[in-house]
Each structure stands twice: as structure tokens, then as C-alpha cells.
Amino acid sequence: MSLSKFVDELPRIRTIKPKGILCGVPYYEIEMQEFKKKLHRDLPETTVWGFEGDYPGPAIEVKTNEWIKVKWMNNLPKEHLLPVDTTVHGAEPDKPRVRTVIHLHGGVVMPYSDGYPDAWFTKDYKEVGPFFTTKIYDYPNIQRGATLWYHAHAIGITRLNVYAGLAGPYIIRDPKEALLGLPKGEFEMTLLIQDRSFNDDGSLYYPTQPDPPVPGVCPSVVPDFFGDTILVNGKVWPYLNVQPRKYRFRIINGSNSRFYRIRLSSGQPFYQIGTDDGLLESPVITREILLAPAERADVIIDFSKYSRQYITMTNDAASPFPRGNPPDCRTDGQIMQFRVSLPLSSHDYSVIPYRMTTIKPLLEKDAIMDRHLTLVREEDEYGRAFLLLDGKMWDDPITIKPKLGSIEVWTLINLANSTHPIHLHLVNFQILDRQLFDVDYYKETGQILTTGPKIPPELNERGWKDTVRANPGEITRIIMRFGPYVGVYPWHCHILEHEDHEMMLRYEVVY
Ligand code: C2O
Ligand code: CU
Ligand code: CU
User: 185-339: what fold?
Assistant: First the structure.
């Protein structure tokens, strides 16, 4: 099925208001629901999951250091919208089909509020997972201004819950940022990009099994999923009318498996001002931005010289990345359109600042540990390929135990053949470098034999990150300080089909 492009206007994601005050801080109640929504002019209504009647969920907006409490509530039906594979960890037949728990991606939060995958709950908290903690989560927001996002994280069905629609933005505003004069108000927008496929009746399509199928398992998890239709803020290939001035866009890749390398058809640059977890020191002027699942880019686009032009945001990243099929320029090669068709409503006083913040580098010499962690492809008991971190599975005993307050380097050794976006809960990190190495030699000896120079991170990766692309045949080194909380947290590949199929491990911050 092929849907016309740029016939629906890009919706602005609304900001949700607190329900009241609890223990002196803003208190939110946010309910997950199933409902129908029109995702494209020519598509019948689609049954989706969302929050408070919205897919994507409404934005939560807070200030740096503003503590809030959120009660995530599950009012979803008993049966899942999508095919649940009961052979993957945590989704066994004895578990309720519809389970949810919400994680704040990029948030520095206590373990009980982290949305631990086994801390799921069902409708009205009737059943709860083995590590259920509390109904009301605390988000202290003691961190930089940044574009975070919240999304479903229940063990074994994260890919399905997020695909059904359970994700939304979470914006932390640092009052200091207001002094920079960045575009704001109606000239600032969040763009949550996701790919989906649809059946002719408008329902969401998600595969029941891989191609070719796996004997004896149906439904079965698939190695990855790439939809043939691109949505922004829950609309298929939308357009946005803009004025000839500067806009700030907070771009989130909320897709299951798809990477995007975005460009503008006008050939004009993006001024990238921020990464996953906050501002860069200075804007990076770039014509292309690569975003793996869960990565974010905070950008300014200056439309002032493009009056009356229609500008398409395109994608040319291969699926799987980087060695898979290039996108089709008629479908997944396009994301949305900007129409510089509105008159200038007032003078544009916003600026692209020369310098925005200071990022103090974490130093390798201060690290007390360099952990070597492999990303390796194996076969599960059904003969399905799956990927493991450090050769281990989710339920294996925890071996990674960083000390509270200590700095560590993690060397991610990618022995597989595609890029995996590796995400750590709790901490924001910096990328040290990437380096080619001899994969076969490593497999034989367990030793890293590098075969190229150390490549520093891209200019637009030199900020605070929580998700890093670990490319095939490369070691990727990241550095972080563990804290400020102790406890057990997940780290995982953010290709959700991988995460659900064992590419997720636990680590524990200890005293
Ligand atoms: Cu965005 Cu553990 O996830
Ligand atoms: Cu996270
Ligand atoms: Cu992966």
C-alpha cells in the first residue's frame, strides 16, 4: 500500500499538566490506553496504544532540579495488539500478555523509579512482576537541560509495546539555557520519528515470524523490523508550514530498529546544538545527521533564505545499518516536508550562539577500570540468531559492578556485522574513540589487535550521550562516572528486537 505524502499537517505534541501536588512537588497521573487514531488522510483509523488519549504520548516538561512524581497507570486491554512470542525471556506463557513499565530514557533516577524491565504491572496493578517497586515514580531531574523520552520497557515485549505506541517526549529545561536566545515557543518543536507498516484496514502490521520462519515457534521474535512508512509525531509523512526564520527541532529516533541519516533537500545545513543529554559546547554545522534508535539531535534549521520553498527531510541510512538495503526514495527515504509558506509574524531575534556550555571531558587516566565487553552473534535453542552482550543473558548473575562515584571505561567490542546502539541506564557518558580491529584474531585469541588509528567521535557526538553506535569491526570506547545512586540497572542494545531477545544485561552500582 502506498500512501500519499505530505497531505497531513505535523501535529505539535502537547505538554501534559500535573494533576496536583504530592509531598510538595508536581504530581502527574498518566494512563496507558488503547484507542483509535487517524494516522493519515487516506488510512482508516488505526488502533494504537498511547498515553492520556495521545499517540505519541504527551510531553512532560520540567526544569532542571525540579522534582516531580509520576504515577504511570495501565488501562490497556487484556490481549495484546501484536504477536507475543512466549519463548523470549520474561514473556513466558505463565506471564500476563499485556504488561507494562515505563522507563525515562536518559533520566538519572533511583532504581525504584527506573522502569526496571521485571518491574512490570498489569491493568490497575492487579498483577505485578517479580521486581515491582512502587506505583509512583520519582524523577529528581538533577541533570542538564535535554531532550529525553519515556517509553515502555517491560521484559520480553518492549518492541511490541513501543511499536503499539507507548512512547513520548520528556523535556528538561535548564533556566540558564533561556539566556542563549535559541528559537523558542512556537518556533521550537519536538519531532519523534518512527517507522510503521499498515494493513489495508489501517491496523498496525508487525510480523508474526521471521522470513524464513523458525520451525516450531510462532509467533516468533524477528531479528529486526523496518516499516515501509515513516511517521513523525504520529502522522504519516507530514508537512509543516513554517515562517522564513530559525526553528529549533528536538529530533528523537523512536523507531524499533531503523537508523536515519537525515538531510534537507534544499542542501542547507543543520546547526546541531545538542546531543542525547544536553547542549554541545558549540553548534556543529552539518548537512547530515545519523540517528540510531533512541539517539536524539537538538538542531536549529534556518529557513530565512528559503521563502516559498518546499524542503523535504530525507533519509539515506541502510537497514540494517550500515550494510543492509538503502532506503527507497519513494518511501522510507523520505521523512517529512517543511513548507516555508507562512509570512514572518515578527522579527526573528533568535540566535545560533557561538558557545553554549562547557563540557568537561572525563579523563581516561581517572578511570579505575577498563571493561572489555563483546557484542556477539549466537544461536538460541530454536536455532534463531540472537545477539549477546559479554556472552551473557539477562538472567545471568551480575558480573559488572562499578563502584559508586568511580569512573570506568567500557570497551565495546563488536564482533557482529551491524551497528548496535548501546544504551546505559542511569549514567550519561562521553565517547572516547572508535578503532578498527581484527575480528577473527579476537575470536581466536580473545585479544584486541587494532588495525587502524583511534578515531575520535564525530563533532556532533562530543557531548553527553546515553546511546552510542558500536559499529561492526570496531571497538568503541565510552567513559562515565557511575552514580549518584546505587542499585541494579540495565544496559542494552536499543534495537528493540535485539533488546527483547537477550541483548540486554544488568549492571550494579555498589558502595
Ligand atoms: Cu530507551 Cu532501556 O531504554
Ligand atoms: Cu534508558
Ligand atoms: Cu543490537
Answer: Immunoglobulin-like (2.60.40)
